[in-house]
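Weekend entry, working from home. Most of the wet-lab plans are on hold until the incubator is repaired, so I used the time to fold the two sequences that have been sitting in the queue since the last round of cloning. Logging both here for the record. First:
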Amino acid sequence: MIRPIHFLLLAACLLPSKCLAQASGPSSNNGPVCALVAGERILGRDMAAAVPQLALLPPDLPVGYSPMPGVRRIFLIAELQELANRHGISTKIGAPVCFSWAVHPLSRQEIVEALKKSLAGIDADLEITDQCRVPVPQGEVVFPLTGLTAESSHPAFWNGYVRYAENRKFTTWVQVRVTVHENRIVAAHALSAGEMIGPADIKTVAYSGPLQSTAVLHKDQDAAGKCPVRPIAAGTFLAESMLAVPQDVERQQLVTVHIHCGATLVETQGIAVESGHRGDVIKIRNPKTGRLFLGLISGHGAVTVVPGGEAGLVGDDKSS
């Protein structure tokens, strides 16, 4: 179900440009000429510039919030007169005043520059087939990669926004076909879950096709030494989410325990109650007494225990 506000925004994007020019410009035949705003709030200096009778207003006085781009905010004569009276300005207001943002249609150049910024470091061809025609305020045009709605050889919607007035965002979109050209890492043969990947398990192939939101791998070293988290079919493009760094210690693994007592080093064995990587502190079970203690993983299948150490690597808990 489309939320009403999204529906309205989409409908606005599809309005004829002639209607938009009438609705979004700084002036209109149906109302007063609008003064332009450039911040979150309409301040005293803005009001004084638009209404000379209010020139004595404090420059930094917050008068009201600025309207959304494409919308006019009108202060009626009664509101302006009350504002003058409240600040001890003896004057008679004769006309209302209107405020709005300066807006403009996004140019193809602005759109392409924003898309290329998001695609920095990626060799890609861009074909823009359509765009939102709602005028936007002046600001930074942003099309984040997360705004691309589909991974397809057909044109897809790419949602973006214009950052204006400090950190406000005005949404917009384009419809674009993105074709990337790059090298990718694929599985040279079927890979089993949990088995470490070696040089013979992967290969580099040239790719030309749609941009994908999934972070794929481009270099052999990005995959070597890692393990698939699930079985991977031969020829599959490898992505970061498919692989994991293997644990140095697995749960229920028999590990070598190094116990430091001053200058004395005692070596024994224990059973890992938890999995972890080098540098993690995990629970170890004494296989003879069943008691638990804590150990720092120091290498593959090895942990270190420092009795009474600052890291607190000793425990008396008998439960698992």
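Second, folded right after the first finished:
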Amino acid sequence: MQKITPFLWFDNEAGEAAKRYTALFGGSKIKETALLHDTPSGTVEVVSVELYGQEFTLMSAGPLFKFNPSVSFLVACRTREEVDELWEGLSDGGTALMELGEYPFSERYGWIQDRYGLSWQIMFMGEHPITQRIIPTLMFVGAVCGKAEEAINYYASVFENSQVGEVFRYGKDQAPDREGTIIHAAFTLEGQEFAAMDSAHQHNFSFNEAISFVVNCNTQEEIDYYWDKLSFDPNAEQCGWLKDRYSVSWQIVPAMLQDMLRDTDPGKAARVTEACLQMKKFDLAALQRAYEG
């Protein structure tokens, strides 16, 4: 199981989006679909997909949260033609944030919000080696602008098999961005690639729960460790969800929870769902007791 999984909160389009994304990203697939009943959002659909070999979870749980460009997904492409094909597919009903074209950092690049509001950066990588096809990218704006470097160093201290890679900085003549802050930085957590950037321009968005990152844990000790390291806002703690000091949302989740919630015995799934709703940090033993009845 992938240690860190992007989790995407849709209004009611998770199933539709899963079909579109798996058709667009070649060799991708829908792994599993489940319905969770009696949640605060009613019955919700949860879809697990694999896009270019990477796991994502999509959930339809109502209009409470909306995607915005504070978290985007950089798609590393081997050819210009692949860039054009993906751009065409994602443009259907979408809005360009940076038009497809040639830029100093790439011969073929564009940044787009698709029809669901999810942001994608499509980039021809040229001679640069590609080790991961889709890279979650965090943009630090507003109150957290200028904190990208601090954040990625902190994340690298929390997760194993982590490191900070190439860092590109703003110069003194790139106002409103402050000299020395991050244009783009690459980093890995648990061997998975991420990127971060600062932007001091005026933005009407910030990190929210529409995109979170699930940390799959095998023991209560792991759950306790990540919860203690990452949780910063007690008011945001609910059902395994938390917000860190930069307002990025995480879910600290037992790896076995998916199997419990998708059990063919509706009684087991209902008991586990009810138990989850009573918790902030997950108690693995209590969930097991609920599952067993």
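Plan for Monday: verify the second prediction. The chain has a mean pLDDT of 96.
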